[in-house]
Amino acid sequence: MSRMNETLLRESNLKITKNRLQILELLQHSSAPMTAEEIYITLREKSNLNVSTAYRILSVFEDKKIVIKHQGCDSKAYYQMFNETHKHYIICSECNKRVDITNCPLCELESKLEKETGYQITGHRLEFVGKCPQCQK
């Protein structure tokens, strides 16, 4: 995976650094979007990464379309790898656990809205919030 990430950075005209490679690796293996703080906490033991560096790297990655950023209902910024497929989640308001919604319920609506409005829709977000079974106990 590291060679692919080095190529990705090179093609994006970015310097290859240990911190950038570690963040890419982490996001590629993450099952859910992560905040900069979560990335920092996960990587702090094995790198010299600090929170401000994580934010700077993620900002550069967003500018280069390597990651996408979205605001969660908790007002935090979440990052995930940019790819052709997108995901939607249901999020526990107590423990912040995220579960994938397997099918996108908005694709049909998106096409209809494009036809009706003339807009070229470039993306959408959908999050449901509730209490997971564990937190309901």
Q: What is the strand and helix layout of this fold?
A:
Blueprint: H1 2-11, H2 18-29, H3 36-43, H4 51-63, E1 67-71, E2 77-81, E3 88-92, E4 98-101, H5 107-117, E5 127-130, H6 133-136
Parallel strand pairs: 3-5
Antiparallel strand pairs: 1-2, 3-4
Helix pairs in contact: 1-2, 3-4
Q: What is this structure, in a nutshell?
A:
By secondary structure, this protein is of the alpha+beta class. It has helices at 2-11, 18-29, 36-43, 51-63, 107-117, 133-136, and strands at residues 67-71, 77-81, 88-92, 98-101, 127-130.
The main pleated sheet reads as:
3 strands, mixed
Q: What is the CATH-assigned architecture of the largest domain?
A: Orthogonal Bundle
Roughly what is the average pLDDT, rounded to an integer? 87
Strand content: 15-25%
Q: What is the CATH topology descriptor of the largest domain? A: Arc Repressor Mutant, subunit A
How far is it from the N-terminal to the C-terminal residue, by CA? 41 Å
The total tally of domains equals 2
Q: Approximately how much helix is present in the residues?
A: 40-55%
The tally of helices reads 6
Topology, number of strands: 5
Overall outline? flat
What's the arrangement of strands in the largest beta sheet? 4-3-5
Following the backbone from N to C, one meets helices and strands in this order, namely HHHHEEEEHEH
Q: Could you give me the name of the CATH homologous superfamily of the largest domain?
A: Winged helix-like DNA-binding domain superfamily/Winged helix DNA-binding domain
Determine and state the CATH class of the largest domain.
Mainly Alpha
Structural class: alpha+beta
